[in-house]
Amino acid sequence: MIPLARPTITADDTRAVQAVLESGNIATGSVVKEFEEKSARYIGRNHAIAVNSGTIALYLAVRVPGFRKVVLPAITCPEVLNAVVHAGAEPLVVDVDEETHNLDPRELRGDRAAGADAVVITHAYGHPARIDEIREACQSRGLTLIEDFAQSTGATYRGGRCGSFGAVSATSFYATKSLTTGHGGMVLTDSDDLGRKLRIARGDEAYEYLDSFVPLNLKITDFQAAMGIRQLERLDGFLEKRRRIAALYRAQLADMAGITLLHEQEGAMSCYYKFVIMLDSIRKETFISGMRGKGVQAGVLYDPPLHRMKIMKARYGAARRLPVAERIAEQAVSLPIFPSMSDSDVRKVCRAIGELMA
Ligand SMILES: Cc1ncc(COP(=O)(O)O)c(C=O)c1O
Predict the structure, then answer these.
(1) Ligand 1 nearest atom to the CA of residue 184, by list position
(2) According to a count of CB atoms within 10 Å of the terminal CB, is the N or C end of the chain lower?
């Protein structure tokens, strides 16, 4: 079976992890610090604080500054909603655009964003959101931009890396992500004051408190960080491979009837965390089971979309319709993509799609 995702772990990673294990210093120490400094430099930020998951990174990004009403795109993973709700903020879920499935900037000017103090963008599937328009809308409505770049570590928009645009940014190093430490995450900012507070909140110094937050132990270990450093060194290579696989998919699927491909926007360079297609003429359940029968794992995406999740109805009442997100939830599926995927695997996936669509 060709899986949807597979981490790229080499002898380099195992040697680095083993060296930390043998050193006897296995909790949070100098290797985590080195991982943070190298990540901050790579993304282009002053401060990077490593934590134990992407959910926690986003939770801290919302909770520590104290945002109260946060706009979110409907098409993203449920952990985004969970993090915002745990942080004590009210989620305002809005629609996404047809071309990239990212938050539609027009929503920030509309009534669904009324009363918000912050907005989380997520760079769906690794494709950067419309940063310029979103920043403009944030400025005109006094919203703080929070970037969740869990899916887009390494992706760029007009030369800047995803993660460098928000007042505060969060990412994940979960097993399927372009850079992985098994579990793990990071929160980044240029603000010295927020950087200091995030470190306290993560539990760097148990005797220190924030006025509005009692710290928790949200740290990662030096052996995870050792792996993170090695992965970071190879990240650009991983991205090149992902982009090459995506190009091969595009070439093979361009004229296939019954599916629609997403476009890469001008100025955006996706890291292709996922390769997503829209099914025009076949139900996704039929597609997924048909692909499984041909030895290929295909994935459902974000169904239900966030505004239809049970917790939204239970806490905030009946959801308004978000037509683009609802169509995506019905028709979008993801195909396998990971750096070690071979060209013949890509051809096998495309052949399987062709047979199903015939
Ligand atoms: C956009 C986004 N945010 C947050 C998360 C949560 O990260 P984690 O699984 O590390 O908690 C994920 C995925 O896992 C994600 O894709």
Answers:
(1) 10
(2) C
**What digits encode the pLDDT tens for the residues 24-76?**
999 999 999 999 999 999 999 999 999 999 999 999 999 999 999 999 999 99
Domain span including residue 176 = 11-231
The total number of structural domains in the chain stands at: 2
What SS3 state is found at 333?
strand
| Spatial distance between the Cα atoms of 261 and 302, rounded to a whole number of angstroms | 17
90 & 158 share domain: yes
Beta strands in 102-221 (DSSP E): 118-121, 144-148, 156-157, 160-161, 168-172, 185-189
Residue with token string 């002898």: 11
Alpha carbon of 276 to ligand 1 centroid (Å): 17
Give residue 293's identity as a one-letter amino acid code.
Answer: G
pTM: 0.97
Q: How many CB atoms lie within 10 A of CB 79?
A: 18
Could you tell me if the CB of 57 is within 6 A of ligand 1?
no
- Work out the angle at residue 71's Cα, subtended by the Cα atoms of residues 214 and 160, and round it to the nearest 5 degrees: 90
Ligand 1 mutation target, pool 59, 76, 77, most atoms within 8 A of CB: 77
Q: Which of 187, 208, 231 is the last residue of a domain?
A: 231
